[in-house]
Amino acid sequence: MKTLALATSLALALLSTACSTMSTPTESAKVTPAAAARWTFDGNIKNNSLAISPDERMAVVSYSERPDVVVYDLTTGRVRAVLNGFVTPRNIVFSPSGQRFYVSDSSLGTVAVVDTATLKTVGSMPAGAGAFGTTLSQDGGTLYINNQAASTVTAYDLAAQRPRAVVTGFAQPRQGVRLSPDGKALYVTNFLGDKISIVDTATHKITGEIKGFDKLRAISVTADGKTIFAANSGSNSVAVVDVAQRAITATVPVGKDPYGAALTPDGQFVYVGNLADNTVSVISVASRQVVATIPGFKEPRQAIVFTRDGQWAYVLNEDLSVAKVDRSSQRVASTLAAPALPI
Fold it and tell me: What is the DSSP string of 219-279?
């Protein structure tokens, strides 16, 4: 216990020191893709991310193989801007107000804070090499950051601009991290050991774990907090988890190499991006069966987002184009064309 406490204190102290020298937008701009590309954090790990602004007028996307972050204007269906200065962008989340969005970069070891109106970087939070998945509390006050290299999760106080706590005891936490609807529990996927760790957000302690997955990828939590859906890319299935029992109670066969597990706003369906066969499987939550398979994608992963009314689903492709799916017909209605790969 003394060793664990010492490790936690040391990690928190290091992050606090880094926070005292947080880079300004000018300093951040000095890091160019060409310079930073001399070293990348585990280029064998690939993931993509898609975030929609609260007003649903903007989409921001990334793919860890590309150093650029693309911003789409959803009202015109065109590229609004291409943001540079990243190396391996991993995850994107908007603040509840929509005034800012956050981009984690595992190679730079930071989370960039971007102003939505100007699309300028206005801050850079130190998170350590290996910063991957992120999720934001409902009030927008705390950003949780997975760190694969350190096997930690940092609870970052955005108002105070410093880490509130560093939670240890994980095993390569990558992209998957979700909060329970009431915000009391944080669910963190561990690539090593294929398990989900459960963290009490009040005490910042791991209180339990759920095992039995096979190359665990994205997870989603139902609105009542009772069920987790988790993509198993190793067994081409989605696991259905009973949270109270902390156990997998069913598995649903889907397409090849599933990464995504995104619940629709009404909670009735789970959309699953199948990387290897370029499809999206649609699972009925009630029947625990696939009710539709949608073709027409290019290596879809976990980046699947719905409009609030549930009529449309946006699915990110490998080339950073975005497929717009009409959920009533379960077909790709249109695709937002991506800019060319930067040289």
Answer: EEE-TTSSEEEEEETTTTEEEEEETTTTEEEEEEE-SSSB---EE-TTSSEEEEEETTTTE
